[in-house]
What we know:
The protein is an alpha/beta fold. The protein has helices at 50-64, 81-88, 96-107, 146-155, 160-168, 181-193, 198-216, 237-247, 260-276; strands spanning 2-4, 15-22, 26-33, 38-45, 70-77, 92-93, 113-117, 122-128, 131-138, 227-230, 251-252, 292-298, 307-313, 316-321, 330-331.
Amino acid sequence: MLTFFSTGESETVMEVYLGIDVGSVTTKFAVLGKDDQLIEALYLRTQGEPIATVQQGLRQIARRLPSDVQIQGVGTTGSARHLAGIIVSADVIKNEITSHAVAALHYVPEVQTVIEIGGQDSKIILIRNGMVTDFGMNTVCAAGTGSFLDQQAMRLNIRIEDFGNRALESKKAVRIAGRCTVFAESDMIHKQQMGHRIEDIIYGLCQALVRNYLNNVGLGKEILAPIAFQGGVAFNQGIIRAFEETLETKVIVPPHHEVLGAVGAALLAHEDMTIRGNGTKFNGFGVADADFRTSSFECKACPNMCEISQIFLDSKVLARWGGRCEMWERVTSTLGG
């Protein structure tokens, strides 16, 4: 899915900053102008091929931007941030917590809690006085993530895009056991057989996801307003309603919430380049057509037997990573530039 944002500017040279967020389910791109306004955004399915998806995104972004655009800095984030960073020769490589926090503060300056729910993981970030003070992540159980709703929508034969609006039609939610996707499916079928309205079951599923999130990711966390809700699941109005009813406060969905990880990476790249004052390491959009490949091997230097990942361009090793020590944590070759 491609979303286009235009600034209406007619400058001879457009100076921009690129952010790339590569997750297990989706890969997001964000292009910010020098005033940090979003110019372009791209949202793609990773489909288990992060290299190919990054290259596909670069090609699409290049076509959308003017020919005289100048990339001033590039940042990567997400679970495959290091891999993406090597491909594009990123100026900054940051974790998802930092990137989402920076983006949340950009759109909601007084934010104190960030709820981020994606396809296969979820996060909570606590911010006090503009600084991250605590966070939590869930990357194991699907019951507190978007894939939970995807699975139930499929079983109910309802498009996930319609899930949230159907939930808003509920007058009395049905309680669904949502601690596990297996139990949720069994309980949902049982409630259907009892004759409960489909809207009430759907909203019950939304409430189950929120309960699971708060009882796992948010357990022991001091959740204070203002609360920003980010990630693709924030499209779901039923989830927003469930969070607001449970937390008894308004939940803010920032603009472009589905790509805010990439926005945060671009903001961090802008900040870094402003401080350092030297040119970007970005290799240009031509890397979209380069022949990258990856492999791994087991390091036998010590009893840890770490699995080391490596990326090649043609026959040259660009980088190796994955060990507990820094033995392989170095770039052995570059793309040039």
